[in-house]
């Protein structure tokens, strides 16, 4: 019983720290966020942060995973009304790119994430997106919607194009004007995979 309560307390503390980190990283940025202020804001100590995440960068990785996972869910939801698998695939990519306008996504996932955690293609959340895209690509090839092409190569290019377009929008001085350019180029590039006129 005590072990279960201890595990529940650790999980609660982990959740509090992720929420506090998310708030601090979104408003102040990773580099400027104070670990002492962040932990104190939820009634915990720096020791709790170290115990749960190893360090501040470990907390950022957990926050990025949470936000990036939510981005994938939002992209899927945005594609729900698309007419077929191909249009859903494009709608998800376009929705992912458009999320670069969201201040929290922009700061945490697209600016600070790569700067402090390295190449996003190595993040577990991005690998989950890749696996889902591979399944869709495999089905589209089997249905002769897409040309016969290496499934992993196509999925990596589609995911990478959406991510890099979002990174471009996020880093731009004028994201609103860059967004339609990024989305248009993404769609045009993706259409090169079609085996017939879309």
From TrEMBL:
Residues 34-53 bind DNA. Gene3D superfamilies: Tetracycline Repressor, domain 2 (1.10.357.10). GO terms for molecular function: DNA-binding transcription factor activity; transcription cis-regulatory region binding. The keyword Disulfide bond does not apply. The keyword rRNA processing does not apply. Pfam families: TetR_C_41, TetR_N. Residues 11-71 form the HTH tetR-type domain. This is TetR family transcriptional regulator.
């Amino acid at each position: 019983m005590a072990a279960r309560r201890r595990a529940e307390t650790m999980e609660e503390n982990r959740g509090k720290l992720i929420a506090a980190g998310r708030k601090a990283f979104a408003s102040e940025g990773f580099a400027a966020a104070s670990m002492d202020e962040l932990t104190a804001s939820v009634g915990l100590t720096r020791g709790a942060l170290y115990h749960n995440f190893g360090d501040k960068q470990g907390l950022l990785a957990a926050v990025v995973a949470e936000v990036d996972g939510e981005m994938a869910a939002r992209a899927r939801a945005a594609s729900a009304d698309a007419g077929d698998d191909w249009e859903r695939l494009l709608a998800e990519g376009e929705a992912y790119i458009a999320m670069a306008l969201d201040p929290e996504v922009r700061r945490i996932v697209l600016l600070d994430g790569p700067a402090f955690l390295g190449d996003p293609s190595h993040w577990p959340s991005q690998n989950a997106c890749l696996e889902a895209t591979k399944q869709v690509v495999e089905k589209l090839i089997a249905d002769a919607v897409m040309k016969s092409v290496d499934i992993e190569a196509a999925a990596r290019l589609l995911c990478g194009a959406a991510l890099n377009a979002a990174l471009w929008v996020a880093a731009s001085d004028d994201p609103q004007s860059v967004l339609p350019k990024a989305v248009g180029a993404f769609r045009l590039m993706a259409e090169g995979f079609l085996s017939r006129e879309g």
